[in-house]
Amino acid sequence: IDSKLPKVGTTIFTVIGQLAQQHNAINLSQGFPNFSPDSKLLALVNKALVADHNQYAPMQGAMGLRETISEKTENLYGRYYDPGSEITITAGATQAIFTAIAAFIKPGDEVVVLKPAYDCYEPSIELFGGVVVPVQLEGPDFKVNWDVFKAAITQKTKIVIINTPHNPTGSIWSASDMLRLQSVLEGTSILLLSDEVYEHIIFDGVPHESVSKFPDLASRSLICSSFGKTFHVTGWKMGYCIAPKELMKEFQKVHQFNVFSVNHPAQIALQDYLKHSEHYLELGAFYQKKRDYFLAAIQNSRFGMHPSQGTYFQLLDYSTITDKKDTDFAERLIKEFGLASIPVSVFCTEDYDQRLLRFCFAKTEEVLDQAAEILNRI
Ligand code: PMP
Ligand code: GLN
Known about the structure:
By secondary structure, the protein is an alpha/beta fold. The protein has 14 helices and 12 strands. It has a 7-stranded mixed β-sheet with strand order 2-8-7-6-5-3-4, with helices on both faces. It is globular. The structure holds 4'-deoxy-4'-aminopyridoxal-5'-phosphate and glutamine (GLN). Glutamine is lined by residues 11, 13, 30-31, 167.
């Protein structure tokens, strides 16, 4: 077969998930909570089903849900997005990202991707003939080296993809990072795809810097978010994209033929829930407690750690334990110790040579205790 994606295999989340299951390992690999969403939200899904919201939703998404997203975005970040023309509900952030790339990338267009990068960006770019231009994030905080970034921008750059809070490193962008990006992009027609799925999972009182706060960035940005992360419902695959009208028009041209519209009862439930709950405002504190619990439980282990600043992931450095490659060490952890994590190299360029594993702490204290007991023994 003449594969369109010859270098792509099965995603690490599926591979590690299966291995973890085979070995009955504690699974801190794929990012998802092991606890239930709010029972009020579940009741609202049932209500939506009984009220017979069982046929196609509008192509752009249920209007009430778009309105609540518009209000939330304006309240939090100070920018108004028109629910009629600037918001689309998608099948998770994954479909939002794929659709944004499909709508704008032509063969030969370059896309700057900051590495490590979440794994869905690059295959989507390559499917449409785009060229990935990787830029390595640097130092323990995975910051942008602006000289390297500027050198990566060319006449062919069509999109820059950023992700804050950042999967897999847990680093975040500050306002000054955003202003720096704004000045580099000023005067160009480069688009920004801003992956903000962890916008509400940010710690230590630091605010999330959405690109929507920065007028010049917002005017060139498609922002993707995910209800899965915010409401503990990753299995629903519900998310959205917001962007200025002229960008959203192109996005919807693809969306309408890619999926047309997404799960209607879930949209109605989320719309009703968002009207009466600001649960997301407490999400940072909720996950910060889990981060702190996990880190305190392994503080005497041999693993090195910089506390995650956002997301529900924590990187652990095992360089004092072994020099083995992370993929090998992750496999050994599953098979010999019964603990699953994600090797960071899968998000990196080929020359990556660090000793880091990613652990998901969106788990009950009981599971975090079990994981810590193993990590303390290694
Ligand atoms: N972007 C990042 C950075 C993610 O971590 C994820 C989820 N793992 C996604 C996008 C996709 O989100 P969803 O599950 O809503 O498709
Ligand atoms: N975003 C999740 C993670 O990083 C995984 C989603 C997926 O399995 N594709 O763990």
